[in-house]
Write a structure and sequence with these properties.
5-stranded mixed sheet, Arc Repressor Mutant, subunit A, D-Maltodextrin-Binding Protein, domain 2, alpha/beta
């Protein structure tokens, strides 16, 4: 497998066609098609299916595409490291953090990291697992700080626990159910939750079942933390999440935590990386700063 062949495969996926991929790579369609055929000969499997619907990836093609993205990402990072060691600039990091970490730890982390690496360019995204896992596996992220249950993570992902935080039910200030003390009091409530596989909300619902509690019957499914918070502030939707996020004077403005018993189990926050792939020095510095500041958020004993 050669570098230009893998780039051809990736561009076909990103552009959805041979023509678009060839244009992106400044190649003729015949040259790009030749590179793809040589790649198929090399791996001994058909990678693409061409039909009136366009280009589709075979199972072998989808698997190789994932690994190709990771391989080229690793090579790009190696080039950047070498350039830095040679006195050049160009440190680029891509990370994701969960909303609570973004509000309570990230500002201090970035201030300290800027002193260590003032020229670093950081790409930042939200730390929901639905986006984090594929981006880590394909090399688009260097690491993530996210809420996760280690047993639910794919083998490719390593999880270093940093802290566990209390979970709570929360809603807007003045909510008609704010005085609820039991889950039975919330049986008619409307909820906004991210129920993607492996999400903390899905674990909370599983916990409710083990406690013999009725699952929410009125539900808005949402994968955006921003939209969740706005629905909580502006409607009667409730949510289960980190108590620290909802009680923070800025991120939790307009919200209040409910003292419902029994309380949901604590949430695990940790550093997610690609297993077996060491972090470059600048990336390791940033991850270490996050680990230090996030550890102070552990409130299991509070």
């Amino acid at each position: 497998m050669k570098d230009h062949q893998l780039k051809a495969l990736i561009q076909v996926a990103e552009n959805g066609s041979i023509r678009g991929a060839a244009r992106a790579l400044n190649l003729s369609q015949s040259a790009l098609t030749k590179a793809l055929r040589e790649l198929e000969d090399d791996v001994g499997a058909e990678l693409l299916l061409r039909s009136y619907k366009g280009i589709e990836f075979t199972p072998a093609g989808a698997m190789l595409l994932q690994r190709a993205r990771l391989a080229l990402s690793i090579l790009d990072k190696a080039r950047a490291e070498i350039a830095q060691q040679s006195g050049g600039r160009g440190i680029k990091l891509a990370i994701a953090v969960t909303p609570m970490i973004g509000a309570l730890a990230m500002p201090r982390v970035f201030q300290e990291f800027e002193k260590l690496q003032p020229d670093a360019e950081i790409s930042l995204s939200g730390g929901l697992l639905t986006n984090v896992l594929p981006d880590l596996i394909e090399g688009r992220l260097d690491f993530a700080i996210a809420i996760a249950e280690p047993a639910d993570l794919p083998y490719d992902i390593a999880f270093e626990p940093l802290c566990r935080v209390r979970a709570t039910v929360a809603g807007r200030i003045g909510h008609p159910l704010a005085q609820a003390r039991t889950w039975a009091d919330l049986k008619d409530a409307k909820w906004v939750l991210n129920l993607a596989p492996g999400s903390q909300a899905s674990h909370s619902l599983a916990w409710m079942q083990t406690q013999g509690l009725s699952a929410p019957c009125k539900l808005v499914r949402c994968a955006s933390p921003l939209l969740m918070l706005e629905l909580m502030r502006r409607t009667d939707c409730l949510c289960i999440g980190p108590r620290r996020l909802f009680s923070d004077p800025l991120s939790g403005v307009g919200l209040q935590c409910f003292d419902v018993s029994p309380t949901p189990p604590p949430m695990s926050i940790g550093l997610l990386t690609l297993r077996g792939l060491p972090l470059p020095r600048p990336t390791k510095q940033l991850a270490t700063l996050f680990a230090r500041h996030v550890s102070y958020l552990d409130d299991r004993d509070n």
